[in-house]
Amino acid sequence: MESQSAMQDNVEQQDNRLNKSRSQRILWLLEECKLKYELKIYYRQPSGLAPPELKKIHPLGKSPVISIEADGLTKPLVLAESGVIVEYLIDHYAPHLAPKKWQAGMDGKVGGETEEWLRYSYRTADGQYAALLSVARDQLKELTDIRSKAPFLIRPISNAIVNNIDSLFLTPNFKSNWDFLEGQLATSPNDGKYLCGKYITGADILMSFPLGAAKGRAGVTKEKYPLLWAYVERLEAGDSFKRAVQKIIDIEGSYDPTL
User: Fold this and answer.
1) Apex 228 CA angle, 235 and 240, nearest 5
2) 3-class DSSP state of 221
């Protein structure tokens, strides 16, 4: 695809996306920021692993990775990991996606932060934890598939291992997260409909993956968590979210939020 300059300071951005990956949040953020960018797709190997070409961009060889070219830079600035990318792009291109930090007259004072900003800071970090839990459940599914193929005599042992991982770790941790988030939405500042108040922030973008993946599974149902359910539907109904999804569909042929 042809690279296009971004909205300010002669900046060019390249989003390096792995097909069938969870990097749609970065696409959504770029759309929300109204930034123009080049999208480069890397295709998984038959093993399901990322191709070695990604390591030429960043040593981790994972997606998402963005490359930023701007006046004054002697080489592209490369950023990996969703949380880092989201915070960096918001700091430089979309400050409206972060809440006001200080209460009036409380700049720099301990406890002077706004509730909205504290929620934002916590959720941008915790969004990564919730995502890891979702990934862990995917890994458990793979273990379950392996269990079904295990020799008959050792199948009871493999069954016990998988069931214990689920019941002792995954399910209780999922429930704690979903209960907490349901409560956060119920007490959103200024009767807001987002995690940090009336307006969407980077925290909502980060949380969109684990919640979208958990919707209808991992314990998140409309009956148990009505506010969470409505919240995810509200996020997915946004124009910028839809544009990002459509770009994925145009390139990959489909979009699966549970990936």
Assistant:
1) 5
2) coil
From first CA to last CA, the distance across the chain in angstroms is 25
- In whole angstroms, give the CA distance from residue 34 to residue 106: 32
Neighbours of 237 (CB within 10 A): 9
Q: Given CA atoms 226, 227, 230, 232 in this order, what sign does their dihedral have? A: negative
Count other Cβ atoms within 10 Å, centred on residue 109.
10
| Cβ-Cβ contacts under 8 Å for 77 (sequence gap 6 or more) | 67, 68, 69, 70
Contact of 166 with 172, CB cutoff 8 Å: no
Copy the structure tokens of residue 246: 């459509």
How high is the pLDDT of residue 174? Answer: 80
| Residue carrying structure tokens 């307006």 | 199
Residue 184 exposure: Cα atoms within 13 Å on the Cβ side = 24
**Cα 216–Cα 132–Cα 13 angle in degrees, nearest 5:** 100
Measured from the Cβ of residue 137, the count of other Cβ atoms closer than 10 Å reads: 20
- The per-residue b/e assignment along 98-107, b for 16 or more CB within 10 angstroms, e otherwise, is bbebeeeeee
SS3 49: coil
What is the token pair recorded at 32? 């929300």
Mean pLDDT, consecutive 10-residue segments, the chain of 259 residues?
Answer: 35 50 80 82 69 74 81 87 89 93 96 94 62 56 60 63 62 83 95 95 89 77 93 94 88 71
Buried-exposed string 48-74: b where 16+ CB fall within 10 A, e elsewhere: eebeeebeebbeebbbbbbbbbbeeee
Helix 202-214 / helix 82-93 crossing angle, nearest 10 deg: 150
